[in-house]
Amino acid sequence: MDRGQTIPTNDRTRGPEIHLERHHLSTRAPYEIVTDNGSQFIARTFKDFCKKWNIRITYSTPRYPQGNGQAEATNKTLLSNLKKRLDARKHRWSEELAAVLWACRTTPHKATHETPFSLAYGLEAVIPTETSVPSLRRMQCPANVELNEEMLRDHLDLIDERRDQALIRIQNYQQAAARYYNSKVKHRRFHIGDMV
Question: Residue 185: inside a domain, yes or no?
Answer without folding.
Answer: no
